[in-house]
Each structure stands twice: as structure tokens, then as C-alpha cells.
Design goal:
single chain, mainly beta, seven-stranded antiparallel β-sheet, Type II toxin-antitoxin system PemK/MazF family toxin, Plasmid_toxin/cell-grow_inhib
Length: about 110
């Protein structure tokens, strides 16, 4: 199953802080290897400056068990094999806000 842009997925934590952690998928179906790999941003329960809070208005369906924030500066490539489930879906606006914030860190 290919996960859509905006999917909140639970996957293995490559940083080793927890067995699983949530991420939001930022890539779309034009990404090379879509369905096998995804560009995703870390979701954390730690509130930080410029993090994007996942308020109820930002989640289209599903939910997370705790107050959560997207860290736009913390992106990774997730292999489909490390993803367990999709508990929620964020709005397109939330993905766009995350992408805009990430772009601030990448612009020359």
C-alpha cells in the first residue's frame, strides 16, 4: 500500500529513542520509488519554536494519543518496510506549512 502525502505513519525510530514514532509523509506520488520510500518529517511531543502543532483542525481523520508537533527541520527517508500503520491524516495546508518552514532552512 502506498501512503499518501499527509499520512501520519508509525515507523521504526532511526534515532533509537523509542521503538516506534510518528512521522508525517511530505512526499507525493511523483517521488522516485513512491510506495517504497517516503520523505517524512518527525512528529514529537516536545514543543519547540517553529514546530507545527497538530491541533484537531490540522488532522483530517484519525488522531494521535498525545499533544504533538511536526518538526519541519527533522526530515528523513522512510522505507515502506519500517512503517507499521497509518493512524491519521493531516490536512494539505499542514503539509504545505511544514514544507514552507522546511524550505526556510534550505534556501541559499
Amino acid at each position: 500500500m502506498a501512503y499518501p502525502r499527509g499520512a501520519i505513519v508509525l515507523a521504526t525510530d532511526p534515532f533509537g529513542n523509542a521503538p516506534k514514532r510518528p512521522y508525517v509523509v511530505l512526499s507525493n506520488s511523483t517521488h522516485p520509488f513512491h510506495g517504497q520510500e517516503y520523505v517524512a518529517a518527525v512528529i514529537t511531543t516536545t514543543e519547540r519554536h517553529n514546530a507545527i502543532e497538530l491541533t484537531p483542525e490540522r488532522i483530517e481523520r484519525g488522531s494521535l494519543p498525545r499533544r504533538s508537533f511536526v518538526s519541519p527541520w527533522s526530515v528523513t527517508t522512510l522505507k515502506d518496510a519500517v512503517i507499521d500503520t497509518q493512524p491519521a491524516q493531516v490536512t494539505g495546508e499542514t503539509v504545505d506549512d511544514t514544507r514552507r518552514e522546511l524550505n526556510k532552512y534550505l534556501e541559499g
